[in-house]
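INTERNAL AUDIT FORM
Audit reference: QA-55
Scope: verify that the stored structure record matches its stored sequence.
Auditor: D.O.
Record contents follow.
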Amino acid sequence: MFRVVLGVSGGIAAYKACELLRLFTESGHQVRVVPTREALRFVGEPTWAALSGNPVSAEVWDSVHEVPHVRIGQEADLVVVAPATADVLAKAAHGLASDLLTNTLLTARCPVVFAPAMHTEMWEHPATRANVATLRERGSVVVEPAVGRLTGADSGRGRLPEPREIFDLCVRVLAGRDRDLAGRHVVVSAGGTREAIDPVRFIGNRSSGLQGLALARTALARGAEVTLLAANVALPDPPGAKVVRVESALELREAVLAAAETADAVVMAAAVADFRPAATSDSKIKKTSGEPEPIRLVQNPDILAELGERRRTGRLPGATVLVGFAAETDDVLANGAAKLARKGCDLLVVNQVGAGKAFGTPDNAATILSTDAPPLEIPLGPKEGLADTVWDLVSTRLS
């Protein structure tokens, strides 16, 4: 059990912090809520006290004999501020202490996580960006806000990430996970490509994108700037990732090559169709009484092999780490070893698929092949665990 301080600042997203509080308490953690005066205009003190089981105050003058403006921060194992307004980020960056929350931030010697929420213009303002950079330089974790509906009719970046996403990040911070990818740009592909036969039908595969999104989420938690190339993924976007949506292998190739130019690592977790129809009908192909015309297929480009060739010939930085995924049904390791050599990547994550394995499941087992180490067996477990192992190996190569 950890002692968590949940700071809540004055934004409409304060109501979402109730769910975050519930996630912490139901996981057995002791939570002290420290709202700002403005936050109490959105959610009242009785709500925070009832949900946390602890007294709540925004003032340094309450229970002065207990010296709360010093003690709360000193005793905490984690301070998380959600939502964190532009005002609180500015005060924290400049060391101001105008209330109990900002005093707590000054006295805390534990990890601090900020989950910002504000309008897009405020988030993109140079002052806010400078304050965020300052906080990150000092070791605080500042989560990138999500894109979506904001207050009123506005939409854009600045939405508070979902409480579950914030909670999962905090759990990782409490577990002592390093921010070893801070300052790195990583590209992750996820999902499965679809190759159109006509406006209705396509050639595709069973990939859900779960493993690719797990890679994106864990990279974000480890401090990376993440570009997620989502091929037909029907899952929520990881908060903080730049998401580029693609459909076909040709679209994915174009997106990968563009993003890879500034990437420290590229992880090709998407299932890319090997073939596509040579011609696509502009209208739905009608069923007739006879046999349908055969569909002639042509090969799609091998995106991972092209990345390896570009790195070899200097069109991609030589320090870029390349990671591929291989879905196999038979002769898994032999086929994987051949692909590793053929594609020119550093790591190849080999999955055995079929009969409920890998595709569409929350768990995964794999063997990671590399150019400089024996095969690494990853037993069946959550896809986030496999993702962390991949980033461990990538981080070692980057450093």
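Auditor finding: record pair retrieved intact. Residues 18 and 104 are 20 Å apart (CA to CA).
Action required: none
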